[in-house]
Amino acid sequence: xxxxxxxxxxxxxxxxxxxxxxxxxxxxxxxxxxxxxxxxxxxxxxxxxxxxxxxxxxxxxxxxxxxx
Length: 68
Known about the structure:
By secondary structure, the protein is mainly alpha-helical. The chain has a domain at 12-53. It is 63% helix and 0% strand. It is built from one helix and no strands. It has one helix at 12-54. The longest helix has 43 residues, at 12-54. The relative contact order is 0.06.
């Protein structure tokens, strides 16, 4: 066991690099989850609009108020 308490032959530089790799992996996972959530929300809105149109209604699209 090394003096720092890690496995033998494991330097501080290697552990620091491992931490950065882990943080980068976590950031990628968080970005993928957020992108998936945004995609689900968008697909849900499109599906609701499509259901409205398929039921024969003509006032399905929301009307945005003019900017002031």
